[in-house]
Every structure is written in structure tokens, then in C-alpha cells.
Amino acid sequence: MKMMSQTDYRRQPALLERAQGRIVGIGRIDESAVLDAYRRWAPVYDYTFGLVARQGRRHSVEVINQSRGRVLEVGVGTGLSLPDYKKQLEVVGIDLSPEMLEKARERVAGERLDHVTGLHEMDAGDLKFPDGSFDTVVAMFVMTVVPEPEVVMRELSRVTKPGGEVMLVNHFSQREGVRGWVERRMAPFADKIGWRSVFDISRVQVCDDLELVERKALRPLGLFTMLRFAKSDGVRRQVAAE
Q: Phi and psi (nearest 5°) for 68?
């Protein structure tokens, strides 16, 4: 049997999608494309995509507010979610875009969000936190943006405490129907719009120590999905689906 190299391992999800005929063309995204896209989006983000994603974002924070301890929000953007976290939580945010972070810091100062203890310019694929630093790690509308989502998932898991949770809110593509057709047609333009329209859920199911415990379609129209993963602590759980 031929051994798989590290490069082949990282490429496996995309190769698998092609082999199964799930996608027709896939856009590539690199860090410079992400920065360019969000530099353009920063002035209008709150009034465009921020509105589309509002219900999914609020639902996710409501779930997190039932927990305790330290929360890391990866891809905090302009900080739209920060006022919704309960004050008993300690919230830290990171983002790659300095323009987005500037607006998040203005929000924290203007609304006196004392529970937000740090906002850092940082690559989600190279988090500068020790292992097990956070009780909950959440990445909302991030995984279709980052160049290597598998690497990011492993970093999210690494900085989560055993028994803690990793939560994703994301768009996952579908193969059939009008939506699938539109997603495939948009795929070659990923570097221009700043996110992948074709993105299979297998790209985020790469960590052996993360157990999927809930999967839920979110409003509007089920365009986004919330996934909750429990960091292994030796206890098995059942998946809740709606």
C-alpha cells in the first residue's frame, strides 16, 4: 500500500470531492485574497452580510450563553456578536483583518463591553494561545474563508479544554437543486468574493478528539448550519439533529 504524504493528506478532502463528483470547479483562497476581500467589506459589512447572518449569530451566542468560562470567537470581524454574550463570560476575539478589528474595538469601547478582554490580529490557522485555553471556541462564517480549513479545525480543537466545545456556524454546499447549481457556478470566483460557495462538511470533520453532538439548520432558509463538537473527555454523547 502506498503511504500518504502530508501534502496528500491535506489535499484529501478536495480530491475526494472531485472523485465523487460533488463539485465542478473549486475556487482557491489564499491569505492575501482574504485580506483584500475583507478590506473591501469592512466599511459595509454590518449592513450587508452582517444582516443576513444575524439570526444564525444570535442563536449561536444564546447557546454559548448557557455555558461558563472563557470563550474564543475566531473571526470576530466587526464584533457584531460581542454585545450579545452574557457578562459572566470572558470573551476573546481574533481576526486576520485589521480593518475589521478596528471596528470591533470601537464597538467594545463605545458599548463598554468589559467582558471582552482581548481582540487580537491573528491567523486562525496559527493561534497564539496555549493548549486548552478556552472552555468554548466558536467560529461563525469562517471556515469557507480560510485557506486551509482542516488546519484551522485542528487549531480550534487544540486550544479547547477537554470537555469543552467547538462550535461552527457555516455554509455547507449541497449537490442537488437550484442552490447546488448556483454554488457550483460561483466556485471559480472564490478569490474575488472572499469565500467558497462549494464547501463540503467533510472539510471540518477531521479531528478525532472532536465528537459531533448537534447539527442544526439555521435561519434564514437553512443557508447556514450550526455544528457543535464536544472535545473528548472520555464521555460518549448522542448527536442531536433537527
A: -135, 170
The C-alpha cell at 230 is 464536544
The 10s digit of each residue's pLDDT in 224-238 is 889 999 999 865 555
Q: On the CB side of 86, how many CA atoms lie within 13 Å of its CA?
A: 12
Give CA–CA dist 20/11, Å, rounded.
14
Domains of the chain: 54-241 (3.40.50.150)
Among residues 158, 103, 167, 99, which one has the least CA distance to residue 127? 158
In the sheet with 210-218, reading across from the earlier edge strand, the strands are 116-121, 90-95, 70-74, 134-140, 160-170, 224-231, 210-218, 240-241
Q: Say if CB 197 and CB 28 are below 8 A apart.
A: no
Does the pTM exceed 0.85?
no
